[in-house]
Amino acid sequence: MNVPLFHMIPAAPAPVAPVFSHAVEADGWVFVTGQMPTDPDDDGAPLPEGAAAQTKRVMDNLKLVLAGLGLGLEHVVVVRVYLLHFKEDYDAMNGAYTSYFPADRLPARTCVGVTGLARDALVEIDLIGRRP
Length: 132
What we know:
Elements: E1 5-7, E2 23-26, E3 29-35, H1 51-68, E4 76-83, H2 86-97, E5 108-113, E6 123-130
Parallel strand pairs: 4-5
Antiparallel strand pairs: 1-2, 2-3, 3-6, 4-6
């Protein structure tokens, strides 16, 4: 196994805590830390309203991290979604999420309800990608 690479992406949002990398890469696998619906240009800006808008911001933030590694959503193989209000926000999250992937190229996915997220967010998403 190669030595893992720990990545901080300048264009990506500031981490919500100082204890993790944006991504860690090992043997072609890229593990992207869960992204929050924070504004990459203004960490103090209010979060978007609603699960759909927060999902879009989170997905756009994930794209920033991937782009900083020379990758895109086409390299994603697994996604994990965390929802604060699972029953209320599942459909809205799915509506926004599905616009990021072609119907014939959907990553494996797990979606779970949680009791809390950083910054009082409604949505957090992490993913695993693979270099070609």
